[in-house]
C-alpha cells in the first residue's frame, strides 16, 4: 500500500540538465528574471498580459527542469516534456497576440471564441500538471475537487448547491479575468515574491548566508546549547529571506544538524530544533516570506504595517524556541562549541558586517512607505554594492547571471502553487462557497468565538499539509476570513491569525514537509522530528489567539496597552517554556511544572484577573520548590 505521505506529497524530481541544453535553460531562466525586473520597476505593462507571459515562460522552464515523477527521465526531457514545453510557449504567444482584444471584451457578455476555449483549456491542463509535478497530489487534488464542484456542484441538494455554471462561463471567469488563475497569488509571484527571492539569492551567493551563520556562532556558539542556538538564530535570519521552511531546513540544516549531533544532541532533537527555527523564518520581519506579500495584496493593508505588526509575535516565537533549547541543553548537560570552533564577534563583523546594510536598507525603505517591489529591487542592488567592497564577496557578471537564473529556478514551484491557488479562489468566488463555509463554522461553533477560531486554525493547518505556505494561506483566508471578520475581528488580526497557522502547517504532523526534509539530514523519523518541533514552538500556536483578543501584540492601540501586552507575553513565554521542559535550575516535580505552564498561558492571553491568578500560581509554585529559593546556582545565558 502506498504510504499516506507519498500519496499526498509525491512529486517529480529536479532534473540536473547539463551540456548545451543546460546552458540554454540556465540562460532562459536568467532572461526571465531580467524581464521581471524590467516589467516591475522600469516599464509599465498591462498586469494581465504580464502575468500571462510570466506564467507561460515559467511553465516552459518547469517542464524542462522537473520530470513527470519518480519514474520520469532524469538525464534529459522526454518527448512528453517537450510537448508540454511547446504547448506552454504556444499558449503564451496566443494570449499575448490576443491581449488587446481580451482587455477590451466584456466578461460573460462577449462570447469566447473557439480558439479562446482551446487555448484556455490547454493552459488549465498545463497548470494542473505543473502543480502535480511540483507540489504533489495534495494541492492538485484540492484543485481538481473544486473544478468538479464548479462544473457539477449545481446538482447537489441543499445549501451546497448553486446555479449551474457552463464550461464557457467557467473558463471566461477563470482564464480571462483577474479573479481566477491570474488572480492575486500569481500576480504576487510575478512581482513582490519573485524580487524578494532574488534578494535572498543574491545575498546568499555573495556570502550573506555564511555571514549570518558566523554571526550566530560568534553570539551563541560557546554558550550552553551553543550549536542549537546557532541553528535558531541563523535559520531565523535566513528563513525570513527564503520564505520557505523546507528550503531553509535543507540550506542551513545541512550545517547545523551534523554539528548538533556531534556535540551530543540526539537525531530527532537536532532535526526538531532546525525545523522549529526554520519554520519561524516565514513569520519574521522584514520579509516574512511570500505569504505576507499575498496578504498585503489581498487585504489592501500596507506591507509595512504587516511587517511592523509581525515583529512582537515573531520575537515571542523565537524566545520560546531559544529558551526551550537553553533549558533542554542544561537538562541534558550539553555545552557549547570549543573556543577555536567559533569565530570572533569582532572578526565576523569586520569580514561581513556590510551585509547588515542591505537588511537595514530594506527595513528603512519599508518604513518610509516604498512599495515592496522597489524595496526588493533596492535591497538587491545594495547587496551588489556592499559585496563589491571585498574581493572575496564581489559578484562579477557570471555570478550575477547565475544568481538571476537560480532565482527563476527557485520560483518555479512557487509559481505553480500560486497558479493552483488562483484556480481554487476563482472557484470559491464563483460558487459562493466562502459564505456557505461560514455558515458551517457557525453551525459547529455556535455562539463561541473561541471555537470558531479553533476550527479556523485547524482548517488552515489541514489545508497547509503538503502545500507551500502561500497556497495554504490564500486558501485558508478565502474560506476562513469571512467568518472571523463577521465575529468582529479586524482585517489585520484575522489575516495574521490565518498566516500563523498556514506557516505552522509546515511542521505540524502528520504531513510536516519541513520535518520530512530534516529527516533525511538528521537520519531520524519525520514524525518524531515534527512532534519535537511543535513542542519547541508551542508559543506559536497560542500567540495568535492572544493577538486576536487584544491587538497590543500587533503594536496596535495605546502605548500602555502595547507595553503591558508585550511584558506579560514575555513572562508567559518564559514560564510556559519552563513548564514544557520541566526544568529550572534542576528538574521540576509535576505540581510546579504544571503550575508554571498554566501561569504562562494566563500571562500570554491576559486580562487583569488572569494576570492576578497567574501571579498567585507562580508564587505558590516558586515558594513550594526549594531549589528555586535556596540555590547559588546561576542560570547561564
From TrEMBL:
The keyword Transmembrane helix applies. It holds the Pfam family DctM. It is found in: Cell inner membrane. InterPro entries: DctM, TRAP_DctM-Dct_fused. Residues 123-555 form the TRAP C4-dicarboxylate transport system permease DctM subunit domain. Keywords: Cell inner membrane, Cell membrane, Membrane, Transmembrane, Transmembrane helix, Transport. It comes from the Bacteria. Part of the tripartite ATP-independent periplasmic (TRAP) transport system. This is TRAP transporter permease.
Amino acid at each position: 500500500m502506498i504510504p499516506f505521505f507519498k500519496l499526498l506529497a509525491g512529486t517529480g524530481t529536479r532534473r540536473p540538465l547539463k551540456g548545451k541544453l543546460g546552458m540554454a535553460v540556465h540562460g532562459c531562466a536568467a532572461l526571465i528574471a531580467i524581464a521581471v525586473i524590467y516589467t516591475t520597476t522600469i516599464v509599465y505593462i498591462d498586469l494581465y498580459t504580464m502575468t500571462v507571459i510570466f506564467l507561460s515562460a515559467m511553465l516552459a522552464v518547469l517542464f524542462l527542469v522537473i520530470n513527470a515523477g519518480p519514474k520520469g527521465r532524469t538525464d534529459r526531457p522526454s518527448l512528453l516534456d517537450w510537448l508540454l514545453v511547446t504547448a506552454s510557449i504556444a499558449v503564451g504567444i496566443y494570449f499575448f497576440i490576443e491581449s488587446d482584444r481580451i482587455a477590451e471584451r466584456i466578461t460573460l457578455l462577449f462570447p469566447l471564441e473557439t480558439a479562446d476555449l482551446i487555448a484556455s483549456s490547454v493552459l488549465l491542463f498545463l497548470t494542473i500538471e505543473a502543480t502535480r509535478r511540483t507540489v504533489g497530489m495534495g494541492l492538485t487534488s484540492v484543485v481538481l475537487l473544486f473544478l468538479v464542484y464548479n462544473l457539477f456542484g449545481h446538482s447537489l441538494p441543499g445549501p451546497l448547491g448553486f446555479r449551474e455554471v457552463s464550461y464557457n462561463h467557467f473558463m471566461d471567469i477563470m482564464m480571462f479575468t483577474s479573479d481566477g488563475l491570474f488572480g492575486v497569488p500569481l500576480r504576487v509571484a510575478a512581482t513582490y515574491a519573485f524580487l524578494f527571492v532574488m534578494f535572498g539569492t543574491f545575498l546568499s551567493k555573495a556570502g550573506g548566508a555564511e555571514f549570518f551563520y558566523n554571526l550566530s556562532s560568534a553570539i551563541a556558539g560557546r554558550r550552553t546549547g551553543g550549536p542549537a542556538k546557532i541553528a535558531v538564530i541563523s535559520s531565523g535570519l535566513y528563513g525570513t529571506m527564503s520564505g520557505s521552511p523546507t528550503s531553509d531546513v535543507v540550506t542551513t540544516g545541512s550545517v547545523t544538524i551534523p554539528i548538533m549531533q556531534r556535540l551530543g544532541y540526539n537525531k530527532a532533537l537536532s532535526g526538531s530544533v532546525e525545523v522549529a527555527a526554520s519554520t519561524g523564518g516565514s513569520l519574521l520581519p522584514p520579509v516574512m516570506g511570500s505569504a505576507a506579500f499575498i496578504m498585503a495584496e489581498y487585504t489592501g493593508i500596507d506591507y509595512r504595517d504587516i511587517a511592523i505588526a509581525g515583529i512582537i509575535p515573531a520575537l515571542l516565537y523565537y524566545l520560546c524556541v531559544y529558551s526551550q533549547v537553553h533549558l533542554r541543553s542544561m537538562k541534558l548537560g550539553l555545552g557549547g562549541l570549543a573556543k577555536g570552533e567559533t569565530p570572533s564577534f569582532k572578526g565576523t563583523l569586520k569580514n561581513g558586517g556590510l551585509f547588515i546594510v542591505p537588511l537595514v536598507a530594506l527595513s528603512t525603505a519599508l518604513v518610509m512607505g516604498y512599495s515592496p517591489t522597489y524595496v526588493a529591487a533596492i535591497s538587491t542592488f545594495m547587496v551588489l554594492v556592499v559585496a563589491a567592497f571585498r574581493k572575496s564577496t564581489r559578484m562579477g557578471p557570471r555570478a550575477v547571471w547565475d544568481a538571476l537564473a537560480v532565482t527563476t529556478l527557485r520560483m518555479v514551484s512557487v509559481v505553480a502553487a500560486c497558479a493552483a491557488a488562483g484556480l481554487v479562489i476563482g472557484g470559491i468566488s464563483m460558487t459562493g462557497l466562502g459564505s456557505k463555509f461560514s455558515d458551517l463554522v457557525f453551525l459547529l461553533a455556535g455562539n463561541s468565538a473561541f471555537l470558531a477560531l479553533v476550527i479556523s486554525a485547524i482548517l488552515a493547518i489541514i489545508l497547509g499539509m503538503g502545500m507551500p505556505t502561500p497556497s495554504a494561506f490564500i486558501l485558508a483566508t478565502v474560506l476562513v476570513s469571512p467568518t472571523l471578520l463577521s465575529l468582529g475581528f479586524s482585517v489585520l488580526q484575522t489575516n495574521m491569525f490565518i498566516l500563523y497557522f498556514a506557516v505552522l502547517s509546515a511542521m505540524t504532523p502528520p504531513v510536516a514537509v519541513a520535518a520530512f526534509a530534516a529527516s533525511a539530514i538528521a537520519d531520524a523519523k519525520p514524525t518524531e522530528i515534527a512532534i519535537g518541533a511543535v513542542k519547541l514552538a508551542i508559543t506559536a500556536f497560542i500567540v495568535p489567539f492572544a493577538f486576536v483578543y487584544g491587538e497590543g501584540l500587533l503594536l496596535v492601540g495605546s502605548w500602555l496597552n502595547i507595553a503591558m501586552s508585550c511584558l506579560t507575553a514575555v513572562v508567559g513565554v518564559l514560564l510556559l517554556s519552563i513548564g514544557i521542559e520541566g526544568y529550572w535550575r534542576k528538574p521540576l516535580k509535576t505540581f510546579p511544572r504544571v503550575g508554571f505552564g498554566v501561569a504562562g498561558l494566563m500571562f500570554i492571553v491576559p486580562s487583569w484577573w488572569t494576570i492576578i491568578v497567574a501571579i498567585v500560581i507562580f508564587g505558590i509554585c516558586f515558594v513550594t520548590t526549594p531549589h528555586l529559593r535556596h540555590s547559588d546556582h546561576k542560570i547561564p545565558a
